[in-house]
Amino acid sequence: MTNKFYQQFRLGVLGGGQLGRMLIQSGIDLNIEFNVLDPDANAPCSQISHFTCGKLTDFDTVMAFGEKCDLITIEIENVNIDALKELVKKGKKVFPQPEVIELIQDKRVQKQFYKEHGIPTAEFILTENRSDVLKYASAFVPSAHKLGKGGYDGQGVQIIRSTDDLHKAFDAPGVLEKLIDFEKEIAVIVSRNERGEVRVFPSVEMVFHPEANLVEYLLSPAQIDDALENRAAEIATSIIEKLKMVGILAVEMFLTKDHKLLVNEIAPRPHNSGHHTIEANATSQYQQHLRAILGLAPGNTEAILPAAMVNLLGEEGHTGVANYSGLEEVLAITGTHVHLYGKKMTKPFRKMGHVTIVDRDVDSLKKKIDFVKKTLKVTT
Amino acid sequence: MTNKFYQQFRLGVLGGGQLGRMLIQSGIDLNIEFNVLDPDANAPCSQISHFTCGKLTDFDTVMAFGEKCDLITIEIENVNIDALKELVKKGKKVFPQPEVIELIQDKRVQKQFYKEHGIPTAEFILTENRSDVLKYASAFVPSAHKLGKGGYDGQGVQIIRSTDDLHKAFDAPGVLEKLIDFEKEIAVIVSRNERGEVRVFPSVEMVFHPEANLVEYLLSPAQIDDALENRAAEIATSIIEKLKMVGILAVEMFLTKDHKLLVNEIAPRPHNSGHHTIEANATSQYQQHLRAILGLAPGNTEAILPAAMVNLLGEEGHTGVANYSGLEEVLAITGTHVHLYGKKMTKPFRKMGHVTIVDRDVDSLKKKIDFVKKTLKVTT
Asked: From the list A4, A29, A337, which residue is nearest B323 (CB)?
């Protein structure tokens, strides 16, 4: 990797959503030329990159796209793995590695990986179809039944609280998992480059929307003690090292009521739980991902100020061209950073943007979160 | 201005250099569609905007460009003012206002403005040609002779230290100004929106390169006492209010050895002396400019961490395709933020990028500045 690297280097990104958009905002600083593939001609990255409209799951489309690039990465996991493997065979660098994405695409393989490598996770059993679920359910109620492949953003998960819920189980390969009665959910982002240098971001604490199963807001750093913080970092480090992954990995964990950490899900890319790092940490997750895949030194991950991140979701009952009300009022509050994702159309619970709020004083921060949530709305 | 404003709103920017590039990076967050005009097809903004290649000083080019836009701003002052005035007549918003840009394009008019409005500035006399300079020089040695129009980045200024230097004076309308034996040079950035809301950034202290007459690095906040800090803010506020300007204004001032502040130059746009605000202040100068011209609430300008900004200039003796050496080493230092400007070709003293360094400890910060300056080089 020569120093000439930083000019007219073509980075290919599979997926053109908001994560890609923020990756571009960060990568502009390193003279990276972004080439983006996404099936939506109006994707958030379409206006600020060399954009190709095409299917991420189609072998030929991904091959043709990848062949134009010097390095390929992803901002969504649902991509054609065979094409990525073929690109690696042809000498292209693909980070995260196709095998890692493949493992993460299938929740069954992911759970087995945890088990084999001693990574703490909720007790589970693999199910092939609905009758498997009926068979095992009694030992696992309450439980979550998760589709092996294809689940996304709250899709592909059914909560089984009693036998009355059993009809909701998927009639396809899945995982039946003991429902964790957790105290908190936290997330840790960890990065690793080809030289094996690993850096962990301070953990964040997530608060979920009760209906949409999407993160409603998060607090950084998480309000947990040092022992747990260290344990969370240790688990995240162990996973990225065992995967030998290059890039960044978001690790979502449950903190159980008896103070154990159990890994819930992982994502091998910039993640919703790391948006706040743009303003609140010494290095953002986007810059850290670029540094990891480009083989650069990892940045310092220190949290500079306490921060909250509020997802800006489309309001229920509104589908159509988006209108942002309350934006003026929110921008007037000290420490707010509004990020809109360039999406023309809104629909209920669609991620339309986010607001990061930084404040030295955590009580003041919490008041601002309430204000932002009450004030800023995406309607039609 | 409705809330629909933030989608597919076309902002036109005259000039496509690094200031425009960083404005785009910030404006992506507000769903702004950037339309950029620049005579260089490979300008730093060309890859990340709707780009038009054309002359900024040509009436028809600026008119045709401006008519496609909802709002027009600048990132360089040398633009066709008649076209901008005509666009205003046709109902387009142009911020900063054409009259302000016009005033600032001519150092003679600028100096007279200071005098008329009681803004402190170095003693001066207007000169029409070289023989005027010969006539007045004796009363003004040592002095700076500045071209009225067309000076840029250290061009258009000649230092007259003795009668031997008089042949260097411009034979064109200019200003002969008493050379200030200053202790420091500081800069203050101030913003104002249409509602008249004004916000001032903390002042920064500049250190110049002895040969190139370009800022070599700056320190934020400036190491001056509160009385001077308040006085600097007061002067900057007074200028932007008297200009009734909308947008941001950079005010460069000399701090004389007897602790007076004298205004040196002003620029009605994001400025080299405000790059550090991206990482070091609650709101960046780019976001503040956008907020001002869009009629939004101004952001908080507080300095969060002490910062230094080092300009990354093309090395002497190197002209051609740029190569960045030492980039890896610099990125490895905690608190460094490298911004490259996407310029393929380097030449001596060309601004190729900058590095902002943040550090809670000012001594540590100064060591890092030295390291960055020693390590990071742009050669061929």
From this structure: A4
pTM assigned to the model:
0.94
CA distance B334 to A282: 8
CA angle B292, B296, B297 (to 5 degrees): 95
Give me the interface pTM, i.e. the ipTM.
0.91
Contacts of B305 in chain A (CB under 8 A): 304
State pLDDT tens for residues B90-128: 999 999 999 999 999 999 999 999 999 999 999 999 999
Residue B332 to residue A358, Cβ atoms within 8 A: no
Q: At a CB cut-off of 8 Å and minimum separation 6, what does B167 contact?
A: none
CB contact under 8 A, B323 and A29: no
Tell me how far apart the alpha carbons of residues A323 and A327 are, in angstroms, rounded to a whole number.
10
Please tell me the distance in Å from A327's CA to the nearest CA on chain B. 8
| A227 contact partners, CB below 8 Å, separation of at least 6 | none
Over residues B355-365, the mean pLDDT reads 94
pLDDT in tens, B165-207: 888 889 999 999 999 989 899 999 999 999 999 999 999 998 7
- B169 to chain A, minimum CA–CA distance in Å? 40
Backbone angles phi, psi at A271, to 5 degrees: -140, 150
Contact yes or no for B29 and A338 at CB 8 A: yes
User: How far A262 CA lies from chain B's nearest CA (Å)?
Assistant: 32
